[in-house]
Amino acid sequence: MGNIRNVAIVILVISFFTFVAFFGRLPALRNTPIGALHRLIWIHVPTTLRVWDQRLTQGRLSAWMMRQAHMLWNDRHPVVLIFFILLLSVSEILFLPPAWHVLSTSRKFIATSIVSLPYVCLYASAARDPGYITMENHAQVMALYPYDFTIFHPGQMCRTCNILKPARSKHCSICKRCISKLDHHCIFINNCVGYNNQNYFLLLLLTTGILTSWAANLGFSILSVAVQKEIPTWTFRGKGFTWSQYANVWAWVLQEYTRVGAVTLLCLLTTPLIFGLLGYHLYLIWAGTTTNESLKWSDWQIEMTDGYAFKRSLPSDRHKDETIEAVWTRWPVESQQVVLRTTDGHPPRGSGLIGTGEWERVWKLADVENLYDLGFWDNLADVFFPTKWFRKREGATTRETGIVGE
């Protein structure tokens, strides 16, 4: 029982800290215990260690660790990708041989598909160009999305790539490239998630979640059959057994069938993480935003709460400067507002400011339209069919920002 208990503890601890690392920095969890633990691990503990290292070694250890951390976190390398592939393949090698003989022919075919699909999606999301912006395709990328004049304004340059930033793009410090519609850089695929591969990344999450769910269900079925051979009255629900007896039975069978038991526990504990991450990205699609943009919206919420955000109308027939903005885009709507921040809490002043009418103070995100939110199904179509050209909507407006909990 000791071995399987240790395996369960290790899996649980890794799963928990993976959850904190992934979700702790999200705006919605910023003021929760998860956010506090994320700051403790990534900010306060390293700061304390640097202080003590400065006292003990004059900072030499910190300097060495910073160089290693810089290489691991700021340079593109396949270490985590290789670990992910090994985790999948080793788990399958441990699990499938003892499970294979209990599967029917049709279930073996299903199992082969379930096991294979994550590798296909992993290759597609890792090997595909996520949307690198070059001088050759810059004009094409500029025509994908219009500027919303809220979180993306025309005329801004990427100082590293020395190109105009298209709407919804961002420079990735790890890939050292500007990416179209950058969501985030994912260390598990050693690639950015952007305009060209976000669909494959979502399919990777879905197929991996299906794989772990299927393995957990099959694993518990195999273990239950093994228990029934020894205890004929046994049922998975444990009817007729006390909690203590039920736990002891599972401890025994997990100890006897360590390979199946360890992989089953791993799948049981990681499945919620995978579907949680998938659910979060589906929420972002519903809201018409990305991980990168949600952080920008969170910054805007702070400015609005402080009373430093203002908006006014943007004429639909305004003149566009072709040197910094595409005259026409594939997107069916154009921004009807411009939102600016000030440093003194007073409305923007001066000549040459874009827009017409009086400046209105904005207090909450619900009062600002999200240009990139066309509704869930069109947002989803934009992800899974990136070459789709939307029909222009005459006089149409986008939904108000669907971002909540910021």
From TrEMBL:
PROSITE patterns: DHHC
Transmembrane region(s): 7-24, 79-97, 200-227, 262-286
Main location: membrane
GO biological process: protein targeting to membrane
Protein's cellular compartments: Membrane
Highest taxon above the source species: Eukaryota
GO terms, molecular function: protein-cysteine S-palmitoyltransferase activity
Residues annotated as domain Palmitoyltransferase DHHC: 153-297
EC nos: 2.3.1.225
Alphabetical list of Pfam families matching this protein: DHHC (PF01529)
Catalysis: reaction(s): L-cysteinyl-[protein] + hexadecanoyl-CoA = S-hexadecanoyl-L-cysteinyl-[protein] + CoA
Any one Gene Ontology cellular component term annotated for this protein: endoplasmic reticulum
Keywords noted in UniProt: Acyltransferase, Lipoprotein, Membrane, Palmitate, Transferase, Transmembrane, Transmembrane helix
Enzyme class: transferase
Membrane topology: Multi-pass membrane protein
Family: Belongs to the DHHC palmitoyltransferase family.
Note on domains (UniProt): The DHHC domain is required for palmitoyltransferase activity.
Name assigned to this protein: Palmitoyltransferase
Species, as recorded: Diplocarpon rosae
